[in-house]
Specification:
Elements lengths: L11 H14 L8 E6 L2 E8 L2 H12 L6 E4 L2 E2 L9 H14 L8 E6 L2 E8 L2 H12 L6 E4 L2 E2 L5 H14 L8 E6 L2 E8 L2 H13 L5 E4 L2 E2 L2
Parallel strand pairs: 2-3, 2-4, 6-7, 6-8, 10-11, 10-12
Antiparallel strand pairs: 1-2, 5-6, 9-10
Helix pairs in contact: 1-2
């Protein structure tokens, strides 16, 4: 006999409590610095922190919570005087960090800094190189934000790309491949389907970005609780 499983929709109040608990659990952030508002599953983070790393960590923490559909990060970065750096100093530190990172090819990434905000540009072979470049510079002292404009070179045919992503979704322990469909338009990937949690939606997108030659991912996957 089949057993019916009830679908439980989480209330905004439950999501808010869990986001606050997750922020408290994450050692990288101070939960008393951050306010949380939730409407229709969309989380808005407010307040201020003393580093861009904390701002990013707060957003990551919110996205991990079951029932979260999207996150609007309105947290302000207010650097203490001891963390203030000139744009020239930040640019030099960013170039040095990128050069020392073994995952990022030399001379493929350009750095521009304006009022503490780093803009990355250039072209790399893989999405993980693009992601790693951003990860490296956002931890630097004095950074107020990062814009990643790095492009990924186009490689395989659309049919090859589609097959690679579908195979990777099947291998992933965090996704139910049967609930996700993959469309490829040139080097752009469109994900569709229904999953049970934001983390599963995010994992599917990560898998798509990991494929060689992907330059754009449109994640249309919906969350059904």
């Amino acid at each position: 006999m089949a057993i019916a499983t009830a679908t439980v929709t989480r209330s905004d109040e439950q999501i808010q409590r869990d986001v606050l608990a997750e922020l408290k659990w994450d050692a990288r952030v101070q939960p008393n610095e951050i306010g949380v508002a939730v409407k229709d599953g969309i989380v808005t983070l407010i307040g201020w922190v003393d580093s861009y790393t904390k701002r990013w960590a707060a957003e990551e923490a919110a996205r991990r919570v079951r029932g979260v559909k999207a996150v609007a990060n309105d947290i302000e970065v207010r650097l203490p005087s001891s963390a203030e750096r000139t744009d020239a100093d930040i640019a030099a530190a960013a170039l040095h960090a990128l050069k020392w990172d073994a995952l990022i090819p030399d001379d493929q990434v350009k750095v521009t800094v304006s009022k503490g905000w780093i803009t990355l540009d250039g072209e790399v072979n893989w999405q993980f190189e693009r992601d790693d470049a951003e990860r490296v510079v956002r931890r630097l002292t004095g950074v107020r934000g990062v814009t990643n404009l790095i492009k990924v070179k186009t490689r395989p045919t659309p049919s090859e790309l589609k097959q690679k992503i579908e195979d990777a979704l099947v291998r992933s322990a965090e996704t139910d491949a049967d609930r996700i469909t993959v469309e490829v338009q040139g080097s752009k990937v469109i994900l569709k389907g229904t999953v049970r949690a934001w983390a599963e939606k995010q994992e599917a997108e990560r898998v798509a970005w990991s494929a060689p030659g992907v330059t754009s991912v449109e994640n249309r996957i919906t969350i059904s609780l």
